[in-house]
């Protein structure tokens, strides 16, 4: 009996090891070079470690470098990784591409084969989760959510929230004045995060008035971008079923390790806000017909094309012939608002932080920008039309995002059908494809010999066709909130730079130390804000 048990255990162990070795050797068997990492985990120890941002490591892996030597008077060169390579994270396989033409093929031309996004185990199953947001959703479900939500980010809708964004900008200015009155440095990263959460709270959660620097949700939102979930995501890469089991256990028995932050509070807070708005709209006959914020816009949202535009592009057979509601469900509204809180909080604050850092280190650009602001924004109020005239500011923001594509993990897709890309590269269903954004954005072959330099003027003329700009994504899944992000940045920088100039101080990190996994961020952006004469 003991022999049978021992044999069964050994057979199980050998079977399990064989399973993981099969996945780990995937790219070896397909003749694709790349970092191998370790059996079972692959390169999880690198890609799930935010101490050195994984997408900067991917940039390094993608460099075309050679081992070169002479042997018997013959010269040999061996390419290490180069522009196309693959790696594994547990059982997940990822192909990295650095050629703009192949990126365009994956993200645009073959969108029907790459409509899914690379997700981690914490996101759950986008096909089954009724709470799946637009970021997670795929196939026809994604198309439906995108189509219904798009009017929310039109110029007409954004014009309506301009006043709210300006109020938040002026509130942050008041805090800046209080903190800098005695010449102290302030951490602009923290200040920008307070600003972006206040904006999104007021336009997506029905928040009344400012809660800047006293918002109880702040630490919970910020914790999402920390490294507290790193180990869980690594477990999910190796065995997604283990994460499902862990989620069930937490829901059933509560958290095993008490923490000061709880990201689930974000959903609960938004849920209360949406329910409150539904009740207000149903009970108050005098409730304004014009939408007051994103809550109203989503509650009013509907699309006349959703049921009719199925035959031309069948994104997912599972949803093609299903009865599709033209309105968002309550869970979907909560999901979209939660998504915009999470995405809008960190990305816009980081873009503002990197812009501040670059302006400080390039005072001639800062002076040129201030001259434009003085010329185009002469009144105390900055209007929606004023923002559209700030062309050089837009160049500054784009150039910042070229050098610091902080949300590059979003530039990933999942292959939904076996296909071929580029010059005969076979991609099997289930393989993830990632654009090497940091490498593409600083490639001298694409951007010229000054590719690593901060030159906002390069955006004063339209980019060449080969200059692929990926900071907001590419193709049908390009970031829906791009115009809102630009609007927030323009409004706040216009108010700050008309009154102050950014200067470094003793606390300023030069160069910045970059960390993070979901986004790439500086540890701090300490600055002096010096009043202009």
From TrEMBL:
Cofactors per UniProt?
heme
Taxonomically, what lineage is the organism?
Answer: Eukaryota, Metazoa, Ecdysozoa, Nematoda, Chromadorea
Please give the Pfam families that the UniProt record associates with this protein. p450
Q: Which residues form a coiled coil?
A: none
Q: Does the keyword Metal-binding apply?
A: yes
Q: Where are the transmembrane segments?
A: 6-28
Give yes or no: UniProt keyword Metal-binding.
Answer: yes
* An example Gene Ontology molecular-function term: heme binding
Keyword entries, A-Z: Heme, Iron, Membrane, Metal-binding, Monooxygenase, Oxidoreductase, Transmembrane, Transmembrane helix
Residues bound to heme are 479
What is the similarity comment for this entry? Belongs to the cytochrome P450 family.
Name of the protein this chain belongs to:
Uncharacterized protein
Q: Which PANTHER family does the UniProt record give? A: CYTOCHROME P450, CYTOCHROME P450 FAMILY-RELATED
Gene3D superfamilies documented for this protein: Cytochrome P450
């Amino acid at each position: 009996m003991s022999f049978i048990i021992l044999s069964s255990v050994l057979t199980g162990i050998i079977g399990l090891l064989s399973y993981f070795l099969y996945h780990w050797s995937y790219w070896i068997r397909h003749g694709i070079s790349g970092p191998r990492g370790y059996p079972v985990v692959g390169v999880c120890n690198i890609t799930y470690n935010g101490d050195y941002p994984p997408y900067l490591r991917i940039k390094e892996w993608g460099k075309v470098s050679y081992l070169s030597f002479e042997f018997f008077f013959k010269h040999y060169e061996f390419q290490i990784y180069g522009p196309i390579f693959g790696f594994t994270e547990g059982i997940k396989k990822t192909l990295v591409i650095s050629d703009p033409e192949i990126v365009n093929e994956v993200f645009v031309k073959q969108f029907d084969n790459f409509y899914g996004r690379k997700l981690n185990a914490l996101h759950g199953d986008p096909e089954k989760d009724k709470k799946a947001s637009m970021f997670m959703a795929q196939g026809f479900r994604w198309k439906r959510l995108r189509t219904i939500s798009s009017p929310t980010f039109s110029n007409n809708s954004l014009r309506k929230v301009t006043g709210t964004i300006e109020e938040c900008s002026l509130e942050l200015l008041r805090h800046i004045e209080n903190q800098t009155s005695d010449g102290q440095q302030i951490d602009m990263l923290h200040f920008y995060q307070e600003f972006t959460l206040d904006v999104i709270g007021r336009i997506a959660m029905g928040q009344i008035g400012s809660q800047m620097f006293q918002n109880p949700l702040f630490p919970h939102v910020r914790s999402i971008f920390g490294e507290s979930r790193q180990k869980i995501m690594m477990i999910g890469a190796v065995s997604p079923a283990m994460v499902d089991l862990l989620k069930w256990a937490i829901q059933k028995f509560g958290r095993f390790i008490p923490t000061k932050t709880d990201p689930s509070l974000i959903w609960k807070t938004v849920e209360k806000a949406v329910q409150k708005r539904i009740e207000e709209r149903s009970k108050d006959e005098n409730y304004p017909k014009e939408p007051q914020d994103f809550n109203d816009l989503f509650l009013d949202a509907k699309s006349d094309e959703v049921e009719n535009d199925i035959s031309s592009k069948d994104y997912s057979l599972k949803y093609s012939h299903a009865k599709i509601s033209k309105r968002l469900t309550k869970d979907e509204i909560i999901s979209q608002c939660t998504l915009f809180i999470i995405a809008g909080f960190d990305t816009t604050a980081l873009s503002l932080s990197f812009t501040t850092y670059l302006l400080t280190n390039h005072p001639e650009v800062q002076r040129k920008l201030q001259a434009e602001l003085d010329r185009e924004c002469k009144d105390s109020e900055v209007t929606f039309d004023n923002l559209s005239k700030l062309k050089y500011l837009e160049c500054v923001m784009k150039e910042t995002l070229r050098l610091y594509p902080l949300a590059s993990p979003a530039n990933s897709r999942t292959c939904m059908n076996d296909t071929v890309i580029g010059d005969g590269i076979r991609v099997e269903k289930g393989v993830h494809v990632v654009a090497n954004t940091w490498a593409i954005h600083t490639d001298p072959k694409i951007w010229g010999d000054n590719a690593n330099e901060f030159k906002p003027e390069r955006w004063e003329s339209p980019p060449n066709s080969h200059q692929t700009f990926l900071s907001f994504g590419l193709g049908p899944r390009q970031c829906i909130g791009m115009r809102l992000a630009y609007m927030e940045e323009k409004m706040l920088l216009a108010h700050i730079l008309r009154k102050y100039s950014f200067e470094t101080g003793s606390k300023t990190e030069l160069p910045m130390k970059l960390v993070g996994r979901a986004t790439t961020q500086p540890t701090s952006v300490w600055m002096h804000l010096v009043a202009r004469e």
